[in-house]
């Protein structure tokens, strides 16, 4: 368990000033309580003031394809129309035949009905002497039916009232949704996007909406517009954690959310996933490092393992050690082509943080770790296959459940036995 203060120390706005020379350029924008209310509101929608960016203007669109394409397109269209007409004629003929058949059937049925009516009249004469009890029963049944009809009427009326209530409530909600409008925030965001050459990575106090990459125009963490940013923040379950559950793991929890929320906009860089590492610190000592992308085997990392370990260790001693307020924490770094180290993020030393190639149990077991030796763990050829937890938000559940070699073997066995449904 960790303290509330330790979690607060990991907020971006808490550490950025101290480490700004060693991290990605970023701007911090304070968020109003109305904006937080908008983020917490059910449903993914944009404030009334936000417009989708015009990515394709009409004249750009018509530039696609030349005249030959256009002629081909027209010919193909005409062929399609001719085929459709032929099909329609065939259908009409079929319908006419069906109608004729129906008429014949009607005729036969009518004749049969006439015969039946004659028989009925004969029977009716025979039954004239039926007893009164039957009539009474009929009356009773009629009465029952009337009652049922009335009940149905009441049910329908109730349903109608409920529908009306829903419609009215939705109208009120729509009205409230239209009341969200943040023109000055939008302007600030647009200015930062321009400053950072068109692409930024958004984040709240702790978290980046990586699970909502599907909603951005780039399909990645990079956002090029206000609508990308708002929609990814609103669609993200990770952001929901920042908004409502940031202190759930704290032994001294006194609040549900921090006093202030900020929107962090970081300049976007096309980072190589192989060059990201997560570092684990206990009692201000770095003792374990994991490949950040723990799903892929990068053979070249093994060749340079010692160089990278030394680089990270030196960077930690020079820049981070004793300068970050927590005793225990994790930090993520990126190593550039020129072997410079940059901080990506800090995080709490707690089970809520992904331990990647380690298990939390072993990380917390102090006896396991040699005081002076740091372990850099990489994916090797024999490491059982893992999927990135983020894939949960991209693929069907069955795929996500194939998280280790045992699960995959089980899947294969079931499939072979034909038991997979
Ligand atoms: N400025 C950036 N440019 C490019 N990619 C970025 C940038 N910032 C973050 N990323 C990518 O997004 C990932 C997550 O970033 P970050 O650690 O800030 O978010 P997070 O929500 O704290 O994620 P996690 O919980 O996994 O630590 C990074 O590992 C990196 O791959
Ligand atoms: Mg992080």
Automatic annotation (TrEMBL):
Domain of life: Eukaryota
Coiled-coil segments: 71-153
Keywords, in A-Z order: Cell cycle, Cell division, Coiled coil
Keyword Repeat: no
A GO cellular-component term linked to this record: cytoplasm
Pfam families: D123 (PF07065)
Name of the protein this chain belongs to: Cell division cycle protein
Organism whose genome encodes this protein: Anaeramoeba ignava
Source species taxonomy: Eukaryota, Metamonada, Anaeramoebidae, Anaeramoeba
